[in-house]
Each structure stands twice: as structure tokens, then as C-alpha cells.
Amino acid sequence: MLTSIPLIDLGGNVDPQSAAARASAAELHDALSTLGFAYIGGHTVSPATRAAAFAASRRFHESPLERKQSLAINAAHRGYMGMATSTIVTSSVAKVTKPNMSESLMLMHELPPDDPGLLAGLPMQGPNQWPTWLPDFKPAMEQYVREVDVLGRYIVRLIAISLGLPATSLDHHFDHPTTFLRALHYPPQPPQSALESDQMGSAPHTDYGIITLLAQDDSGGLQVRPRGGDWIEAPPIANTYVLNVGDMLARWTNGRFVSTPHRVINRSGGDRYSLPYFLDPSMDALIECLPTCTDAEHPPLYPPVPYGEYLMERLNKNYDYRRDTSKASA
């Protein structure tokens, strides 16, 4: 029975052709096919860049509510989501009836004004909303995204190697990636009230997409439930990321990699901040069983699905603003 999450040290490497990459890929395959989670150390995201992003997030969440609400989340899924406005009704691991006790600012992939998808009004293609009253916020977050995206794309290449594919074989799915950086704030919760009332910072769920790279502060509260096991803690480890498999990667690998339930209960007695970065494919990318993940004894478990179609179904069910047609069409 798994009782802890493995740590994979990349050694500062970003070269997928190196011997170190092959070793990391083998460790990654073992972790993602058993638990679906791993700590990632030895990455190339600067501690200063990460600290600046956390500081920017704290300053935003300490801003007056009226200012935060001026950036209310828009139809392109960018902006401020107030406390208790998301309920994970699509959770496959729990019957969730109460909203998450968190607030967040959602930032997605930046698009130039002449982007064809933006001009055509395609789903998830729109402007980010920046807190202009915090002049250092945008540059701090943009630098953070640049650095964590490099790590995410390297992880995708390690995944390809681990599956017996050329390192760059999955890259084209991310030519126009769908990315989310969620600046999350969880208020403190009384020690026992969360489980007794089913009120959590983040209710049990699996992630939608390919991979999540989570930077968490030192508050703790993240828990993971291995297959056939009970909840285990995912405590903060300095200068690491918590990597986990999303539903689309599990589907892509024909169930070889595990999209594992996780939840957040903030019992720290103080505020909890985290920065999950979700690296997902282009909206029109077709996700179908990878060739090395199927054979005569292991036929594809899932039909092909466009990533964007899958994503929109879940967003439309889980977020209050998308159930409010007047806001969703604004």
C-alpha cells in the first residue's frame, strides 16, 4: 500500500536526449502509473520567480473585495472567482454538494489582439484580466508562467520517453496550448468542521487535463487518495512541485497513468496560498489512445475526444458563472 509520494529530482536538466532524462522518465513512469502523483525537485524555476508570484498572489487577495470583484471572471474563464463559487459536481470520486471554500484569480494563455481564435470568439480564447492597481502583479505572473511552462513542456517530453515514444512526439498537441494559472487563497477552517460538514477548501476531485504542476506554500492541507487506499498527506517540500496526472492524460495512456483523487482541507489556522499551473493541449487537439499504450490484449478503453469538448462540459457544470447565462454571454 502506497503511503507517501515519491520525489523525482531532475537535476536541473532540460535536455530530453540526456541520460539523466531517461532516468527521470523511468522514475516518472513508475510514479504516474502507480500513484499518479510525484514531487518534482531539481527543476529550473527560479526560487525568486516563484517567491515573487506568491507575493503577488497574496497582495491580490489582500485587496479590497470591491476591487477583486471588478475583475469578475469572464466568458473566456479569466478573472476573479469569489469565495464559494465553484462546486465540483462532475467529481467521479465523491458526491459534492457544497462549494469549495476558496477564492482565486484565473489567468490563462495570453493571446495577441489579432489572434484568429480570439477574433472568432472561440471558447477559452479571450483577454486576461489584470489588477492594474498592483503594477508589479502582471510582470511577476508573466515571468512565473514563462518559467513553469518550460518545466511543464519538459515533463511532457519525459512522459513521451517513458511511454517508448520519441521525446518530441507529443509536442504538436501543445502548439497552441490551453494553460491555466490559478492564484488560489484558502481561508483557515476549524479543525473538525470540514469533514463533518462536507465543507472543504477543495472537495475530492480529479483534474481535467494533462498535467498539473502545483506550487504550495508551507501551510499543508493537500491530501491524495491512492487506488484502494485511504487519504495520505502531500506535505510541502521546499522548492518542489507536486505533479499530478489529469483525466485527459489517463485517457491518452489508456489508463496506464492514474488520475488520482485529491482534496484540500486547510487546518493550518492561517491562510493557505497555492499556484497550480495546468498545461493542457490545444482546444482542437484530438485525444485518442497513444500507440504504445494499446495492443491486442489492451484495446482502447475510451473513444477519441476533442480536448476542448471535454473541457467545456466540465467547466459548464462546475462553475456558477457558467450556469448564469447572462454572465457567460457577457
Q: Can you walk me through this structure?
A:
The protein is α+β, with helices and mostly antiparallel strands and 330 residues long. It has a single domain, classed as Sandwich (Jelly Rolls). It is built from ten helices and 14 strands. The chain has helices at residues 19-34, 47-61, 65-69, 116-119, 137-162, 193-197, 247-252, 307-318, 320-323, 325-328, and strands at residues 7-9, 37-41, 79-81, 103-108, 178-186, 202-205, 211-216, 222-224, 232-233, 241-245, 262-264, 272-280, 286-287, 305-306. The strands form three sheets. The chain has an eight-stranded mixed sheet. Helix 1 crosses helix 5 (137-162) and helix 2 crosses helix 5 (137-162). The longest helix has 26 residues, at 137-162.
